[in-house]
Design a protein that fits this description.
Helix content: 40-55%
Order of helices and strands: EHEHEHEHEHEHHHE
Structural class: alpha/beta
Shape: globular
Mean pLDDT: 95
Strand order of the largest sheet: 3-2-1-4-5-6-7
Largest sheet: 7 strands, parallel
Strand content: 5-15%
Distance between the termini: 38 Å
Length: 258
């Protein structure tokens, strides 16, 4: 077991699957105490159990990132147990396909609540908890927060918001003298449940065409793996990235280099 995150505690939202689960496992491999948070407690518990079964330190909590009171209750638990949070990964997210013309307003609102409001609430809560001892906040955005993609209007908007919000929050922490670093991560096409769910909402033929189109546009010619994103998050969570804040780390197989 590695020691890059030894004596650090990490909270990972959306930790029950995909990139969140990969981060939880990777961080535990580097000796972090991991709190796997997800709205689906069973999924979070399965990942925590998988980590502890191989000697890691993890526990699961249920968290609806859209609810301010849920964040308050969770951080009250941390204070009561004298848990010092060192790392937060705001990873929970959804993707509801739809063009600007056709997107239902309720889908737009749902996307912003999870993808953007959840990141705001988590970042705000973590800043309050970390401002005395410092820490690293990693907000998972997307290449869709940098470049547009027809048919994902709400998702594009939410992830673009995460990108610029992270920069503003990072600068505020610097101005206030907090030793808190805030960075965003921008994955390209990665095989996760969020991709599978998005594909499930279109026809099989449309799904194949969309997946082929995205893969064809990726210079490396393949879909990324969740662990590849987790490795980048590990760097941002560790002291190795101590001079990075307000940065955006793109991991996309060359997609946005074109």
């Amino acid at each position: 077991m590695g020691v890059r995150l030894q004596e650090k505690t990490a909270l990972i939202t959306g930790g029950g699957s995909g990139i969140g689960a990969a981060c939880a496992k990777r961080f535990a491999e580097e000796s972090a105490a991991v709190i796997v948070a997800d709205i689906d407690l069973a999924a979070a518990s399965a990942i925590a159990d998988e980590i502890t079964s191989v000697g890691g330190n993890a526990r699961a909590v249920q968290l609806d990132v859209c609810q301010p009171e849920a964040w308050v209750a969770l951080f009250d638990q941390f204070r009561a147990s004298q848990t010092q949070l060192d790392i937060l990964i705001n990873n929970a997210g959804i993707a509801l396909p739809g063009t600007t013309e056709e997107c239902r307003f309720e889908d737009w609102q749902a996307t912003q609540r999870v993808n953007l409001d959840g990141v705001f609430l988590g970042t705000q809560a973590a800043i309050h908890a970390m401002k005395l001892c410092g820490g690293s906040i990693i907000n998972i955005s997307s290449i869709e927060g940098i470049v547009g993609n027809p048919g994902l209007a709400a998702y594009n908007a939410s992830k673009g918001g995460v990108r610029i919000f992270s920069k503003a929050a990072a600068l505020e922490c610097c101005q206030k003298g907090y030793a808190i670093r805030i960075n965003s991560v921008h994955p390209g096409l990665v095989r996760t449940a969020i991709i599978d769910k998005a594909l499930a909402q279109v026809s099989e033929e449309e799904g194949r065409a969309l997946l082929a189109s995205l893969t064809d546009k990726t210079p490396m010619g393949r879909i990324g793996e969740p662990r590849e994103i987790a490795n980048a998050c590990l760097f941002l969570a560790s002291d190795e990235s101590s001079y990075m804040t307000g940065s955006e780390l793109v991991i996309d197989g060359g997609y946005t280099a074109q």
